[in-house]
Automatic annotation (TrEMBL):
It holds the Pfam family HIT. The lineage of its organism: Bacteria, Pseudomonadati, Pseudomonadota, Gammaproteobacteria, Lysobacterales. It comes from Dyella solisilvae. This is HIT family protein. GO terms for molecular function: catalytic activity. It comes from the Bacteria. Residues 38-107 form the HIT domain. InterPro entries: HIT-like (IPR011146), HIT-like_sf (IPR036265), HIT_Hint (IPR026026).
Amino acid sequence: MSETTFELDPRLAADTVLVASLALCDVRLMNDTRFPWLVLTPRRAGLVEICDLADDEQCVLWREVKLASQALRETAPHDKLNLGALGNIVRQLHVHVVGRREGDAAWPGPVWGSGKAVAYEAEALARMLEALRKALAR
């Protein structure tokens, strides 16, 4: 990852689909139907931790996390919302917004490393992206 040009980590690019670009972050859908799961990645090069963002950008990040959380709530009902910025495998700063349902494929444990992803079929992916984009535009 270059210090001057933002590039999305190849693992995030491979596992997600772009939903929308907000003021700071790209919002991406994890391509796994088992969990309603968004990933927000600030379009800034060289970031690893939230504290690497300027103070004003940290505020923007949390507003965008809130917006993504609300969009996920509208489009994919869930019992609990999990937020995380782990970065143990993908070091590039990104925030997970995951809707959890009691009895889902990983319940009550974490979604990371739980089984094999089940990719969206083309039509279902298109519907989910359309619904999320509509909700994010509100």
